[in-house]
Amino acid sequence: MNPLELTLGIMTAVGGFVDISELVFAAKAGSKFGYALIWVFALSTIGIIVFSEMCGRVAATAKQPVFSLMRHRLGLKLGLATLAASFVANLITCAAELGGVALVINYLTGAPYMLMAVVLTLLIVLSIWVLPFQWIERTYGLLGLFMITFAAALVAIHPPWGHIAGGFVPQVPHGLSKKELLTFGYFVVAIVSAVMFPYEVYFYSSGGIEEGWGPKDVLTNRLTALIGMGLGSTLAISILANSAQMFEPANVDPAIPGSAALQAAIPFGKWGLILALMGMFFAVAGAAVETCLANAYSIAQFFGWVWGRHKKPWEAPRFTITWIAIFAIALAIVLTGIDVMTLVEFAILFSILVLPLTYLPLLLLANDRKYMREYVNGALAKALGWFYFAVITLAALAALPLYLLTSGGNG
Amino acid sequence: MRPDSPIKLVSELLDLPLLDVEGDYCGVVDDVEFKGGPGKELELKALLVGPGAYRTRLPRWGMWFVTKLAGDRVARVPIDKVRSVSSAVHLECAARDLGLHKSEAAAAKWLPRWGAL
């Protein structure tokens, strides 16, 4: 295990943790319910750590990415249905991320939103064409570390740390009306979905194969998932806590993604705002790359195509054409003029509906000694795996009724 | 596992990815072909690769959709070209020797071959 590689991997995971949906829901959760939803972030973060570690281990030992194994496990029909559902979920998420980066540049420079969506999509496509996998992952992940501005802002405003710590205890706030209770329920589901997005697992496991992981990398995988994602989630929790401290008392509803950046402007002024927006830009652009590649990985792996950005783009031609086409479709969705917040709502909803379908085969595989040999799930991974499978299944069942009853969390 | 050892076909072979001798992905085991018949010994003859091999596995409307989207070509991989079966099927020859490279080669014509590190 190379300590420099490990540190870089962890930092990349920290910078790449937050995406547009987490940004939006962390800010909204804090302004609506104070610190009461921190525990959902903590609970879901442990969930994504458990599943990422598992799929990294599957990739390192079975040497096959999740979607190849998923098709083998689910068969052609159910596999195709899962592929189609996850494609739609990832595509909408990708469109939301592209809209998000265009909005951030719009805030920073005043340049027209639609034009920026086109220009930035082209730049992102160019970056994937030019850079090999590890550079792509590191560039966006490390520059996403500007998001630390949000944690610094939280420290600077001297929040009531006791209340924040209290937020880690699972709770439902007292005295909520029936309508508010439903909205609270919707936020719980939305946060579980945003933190445990299916694209993260596809990207993480395929990334492991892109980097040539083998059984010797099982520990690196475990530490990267545990520390990187654990620290990454403190950034999302910082946004929530800032929001609870600054927005809730003033009755501010962070109705646009940019509202969160104001959290850094309050203690640090103009430079705080700029750094926060830069963090948001790279984190969200990184998520756009991840969602798009995750979709292209899934399709290529399902049909057995040559895939990966460790190869030159023309050496994996169908894979390359697929990710370019996905960016083009996602951009077309943004250019219809649909609101980014609406895209985020749809991304959350579709993703939670497909989550159980994508996690079950992974869990079955990681529990299968024939594939995994001595790296098979231990008692802890197995227990946590089934617990989280139950959590996401419940969240998936509740998602659509809660979305409809609360008009997407808007009461 | 060696290709001539007994295997539970459906659970262990179907839908596994194929890797050629250079380690490149070149399809998925979409169907299998047997020699023999009722009352005779059944012997695995070839792996069938390509969207055309979905015909027996998808409902008619699904197959119509697949054919419109991806065509209906099928490539045969004689079983003696299989080196081993694990979490993937490893072949002992190159994809192009079995005609498994055609779609990738056709797609490659659309892409420029410069500009990547």
Radius of gyration of chain B: 16 Å
The proportion of residues forming helix of chain A, as a percent range, comes to: over 70%
Give the ordered list of helices and strands of chain B. Answer: HEEEEHEEEH
Distance linking N and C termini of chain A: 50 Å
Arithmetic mean of pLDDT of chain B: 88
How would you describe the shape of chain A? globular
Question: How would you characterize the overall build of this protein?
Answer:
Chain A has a single domain (3-405), classed as Up-down Bundle (Amino acid/polyamine transporter I), CATH 1.20.1740.10. Helix content of chain A is 77%, strand content 0%. Chain A contains 16 helices and no strands. In chain A, helix 3 runs parallel beside helix 10 (198-210). The longest helix of chain A has 44 residues, at 66-109. Chain B has 117 residues and is of the alpha+beta class. In chain B, strands 2-1-7-6 form a 4-stranded mixed beta sheet, with no helix packed on it. A 3-stranded antiparallel beta sheet of chain B has the order 3-4-5, with no helix packed on it. In chain B, a hairpin with a 3-residue loop joins strand 6 and strand 7. The longest helix of chain B is centred in the middle third of the chain and has 11 residues, at 60-70. The radius of gyration of chain B is 16 Å and the shape is globular. Chain B starts with 8 loop residues before the first helix and ends in a 9-residue tail after the last helix. Chains A and B meet through helix 4, helix 12 and helix 13 of A and strand 2 and helix 3 of B.
